[in-house]
Amino acid sequence: MKASAFLIFFSIVLVIYGLVNSYIFIRGLQAIPAGSCWRPWYIASFWIIASTFVLARILERTYPCGFTGIITWIGSFWLAFMLYFILIAVFVDFARVINHFFHIFPQLFYVDYQKTKLVVLFGSLLLVALVVAGGFINARIPRITKLDLHVKKKAAGEKTLNIVMASDIHLGTIIAKRKANRLVATINGLHPDIVLFAGDVVDEDLAPVIKNDLGANLGMIKAKLGVYAITGNHEYIGGAEAAVKYLREHGVNVLRDTAILIDQRFYLVGRDDRDKSRFTGKPRKELAELMHQVDLSYPVILMDHQPFHLEQAVKQGVDLQLSGHTHHGQLWPFNYITTAMYEISHGYKLTGNTNFYVSTGFGTWGPPVRLGNRPEIVQIRLTFD
Q1: What does the pLDDT look like over 111-145, one tens digit per residue?
Q2: Cα–Cα distance measured from residue 55 to residue 49, given in angstroms and rounded to the nearest whole number
Q3: What CA–CA distance (Å, rounded) separates 92 from 24?
Q4: How far apart are CA 46 and CA 49, in angstroms?
Q5: Which of 40, 86, 156, 266 could form a disulfide with 299 if both were Cys (CB 3.0 to 4.6 A apart)?
């Protein structure tokens, strides 16, 4: 991405982030009585916590260490708190507008209005803390999604292929050693023939991945036909060349606009992420161009990180497309946005002779929290004629 474009993008995000936090801050401050000894503590602690996310994005690139990890965890959690604080604040203000015209609040609310505001403040804190805690626990318990799919093509050798697929792992500071161990143990426990990572294997910055030696975990995956991956948008955000080099050094075969015949049985096609042009100025290859390398009499499996333009896979004769990226919103109510944006926000769909699966992802971006969906590892038992 050009420096000027990045600066504009970062400035817009920073302004929005500042405005949202300012709104939450003002609404919280109004609940604390003027002259209260708690006001200075609230002001200082709020802005220190609110600044940690921005500070962490800078420090992760320039000074990865234990302190940076702590800042990153605090800042990541704050994003989840910020989301639900703003939803509550907007809901309360909307209720106040309705009350202005229709007087829906009982008189009890006005007996001691300052006390009412404090009750709402502490009630909101408790509610959001419980919601985020529940989402944190949920994000740490991935499910195994199992599918039995059939491709109406002949394949040499064994007629069944055991695929284990994961997307959006986001290895880094938040998804570190413990969760990487769980990923590898779960995958190996499914005894895969082949393992497919559908993009965003690493988070934006490679430094914490190297520091925690997470590549060593990936090197322990056992699959007789190998481990394959594609780039996602986060590989490009952090620098795709370095990320790809690191993954390949640790036993992960990264396909970049490439089609290969595996075990003389099926083709595996891996597309570079569609954001390649935004970050490098160079477009990825069109799917039609990639499919020129493919003999369609063989089963064809395609990995494409972002599930856009699914009709192209159908047109080109792909038998199974695997994608991720959406996280199915990760945090409610963002799932409504991803459902509106993508033909498949998550799950399975058959169009023509093409099977599609879009995973909710194994890891998280930003908050280590999931609400409204579960992280997953997908096992696909693919049979051929």
Answers
A1: 788 888 999 999 999 999 999 999 999 999 999 99
A2: 10
A3: 12
A4: 5
A5: 266
